[in-house]
């Protein structure tokens, strides 16, 4: 009796990179840009389009304000709202899903750096709130550009769930989340096959400028390693270019479960890169080198969940 052929599970994905957004650029104008990128992805057969982190505004955490309420206009209190509904309507018309990063203000006053996953019919499927919040909490005017995410946002309390959507096990992360191996592994342990990511990454890092030249290398390094070590696709969309005087890293990319980059943006402006992703490719790694059930040793990993890593000591001769 012959073995039946493997069922093809393929999805065409797009990373929709944005160029700079000016401080005075209205959300309605930004949404028009997003719609153009969505259409460009649809024209190339994309079923799911990934937009950047904080895709509706300039990267406002670079500015200090004494009163948080003065920043409310950067935040969304509903999704979709008045400004974003045309994007949802266009997605439904095209039959294309999307991932969108935005600043969220909840009814009870919590502020999160969030993302929404939207299905082919234009309806929200899932929400994610950024877990690893970088930067600083206090005004540091010595910096050429501040990074006040820890002032504007709380860490997401839900961690890294995985959802069944678009025929895959889908997870989400935002910007700094991509630098932490735990991000990928927590989703990997839930069988993730597709991780969606948006980022706004300043190239200049004031606490240690020696890292500036390595920013492009580090950006891809962490995502390629996370994809490979967990047997998953990663689709990452940047906001790039010079925004309000700050240089942002571009390099939007689609990364295979092998860790290879299969598509990458070539500019720092509005650009769509598309790749056809074979979800069965994930199994080649999940069932061989990274067969978690067979090879992982969780009994010796306890220190990973300690609040601060404490070096283990072993007495000589033991």
In short:
20% of the residues lie in helices and 25% in strands.
List keywords for this structure.
318 residues; alpha/beta; Nitrilase/N-carbamoyl-D-aminoacid amidohydrolase; 6-stranded mixed sheet; globular
Radius of gyration: 20 Å
Q: How much of the residues is beta strand, in percent?
A: 15-25%
Number of domains: 1
Number of helices: 7
What proportion of the residues is helical, as a percent range? 10-25%
Report the principal-axis shape: globular
State the end-to-end CA separation.
56 Å
The CATH class turns out to be Alpha Beta
Order of strands in the sheet with most strands: 5-4-3-2-1-14
- CATH architecture name: 4-Layer Sandwich
CATH superfamily: Carbon-nitrogen hydrolase
Mean pLDDT over all positions: 95
What does the model show?
The protein is of the alpha/beta class. The chain is 20% helix and 25% strand. It has seven helices and 14 strands. Strand 3 (97-105) and strand 4 form a beta hairpin. Helix 4 (181-188) runs parallel beside helix 5 (215-230). The relative contact order is 0.16.
Q: Secondary-structure blueprint of this entry?
A:
Blueprint: E1 10-17, H1 27-43, E2 48-50, H2 85-94, E3 97-105, E4 111-118, E5 124-129, H3 149-152, E6 162-165, E7 168-174, H4 181-188, E8 194-199, H5 215-230, E9 233-238, E10 241-243, E11 246-248, E12 253-255, E13 261-264, E14 271-278, H6 281-286, H7 292-295
Parallel strand pairs: 1-2, 2-3, 7-8, 8-9
Antiparallel strand pairs: 1-14, 3-4, 4-5, 6-7, 9-12, 10-11, 12-13
């Amino acid at each position: 009796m012959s073995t039946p052929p493997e069922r093809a599970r393929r999805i065409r994905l797009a990373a929709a990179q944005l160029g700079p957004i000016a401080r005075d650029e209205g959300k309605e104008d930004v949404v028009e840009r997003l719609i153009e990128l969505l259409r460009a992805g649809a024209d190339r057969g994309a079923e799911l389009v990934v937009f950047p982190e904080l895709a509706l505004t300039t990267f406002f955490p670079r500015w200090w304000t004494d009163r948080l309420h003065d920043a409310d206009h950067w935040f969304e209190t509903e999704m979709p709202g008045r400004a974003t509904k045309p994007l949802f309507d266009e997605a439904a018309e095209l039959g294309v899903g999307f991932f969108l990063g935005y600043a969220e203000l909840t009814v009870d006053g919590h502020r999160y750096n969030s993302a929404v996953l939207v299905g082919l019919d234009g309806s929200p499927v899932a929400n994610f709130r950024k877990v690893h919040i970088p930067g600083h909490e206090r005004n540091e005017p010595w910096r050429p550009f501040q990074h006040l995410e820890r002032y504007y946002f709380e860490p997401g309390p839900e961690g890294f769930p995985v959802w069944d959507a678009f025929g895959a096990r889908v997870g989400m992360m935002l910007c700094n989340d991509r630098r932490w191996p735990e991000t990928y592994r927590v989703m990997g342990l839930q069988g993730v096959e597709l991780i969606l990511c948006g980022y706004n990454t300043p190239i200049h890092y004031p606490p240690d400028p020696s890292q500036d030249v390595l920013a492009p290398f580090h950006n891809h390094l962490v995502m390629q390693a996370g994809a490979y070590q967990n047997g998953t696709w990663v689709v990452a969309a940047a906001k790039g270019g010079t925004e309000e005087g700050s240089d942002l890293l571009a390099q939007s990319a689609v990364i295979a479960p092998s860790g290879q980059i299969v598509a990458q943006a070539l500019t720092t402006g509005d650009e769509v890169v598309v790749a056809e992703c074979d979800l069965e490719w994930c199994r080649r790694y999940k069932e061989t080198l990274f067969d978690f059930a067979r090879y992982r040793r969780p009994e010796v990993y306890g220190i990973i969940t300690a609040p601060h890593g404490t070096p283990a000591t072993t007495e000589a001769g033991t």
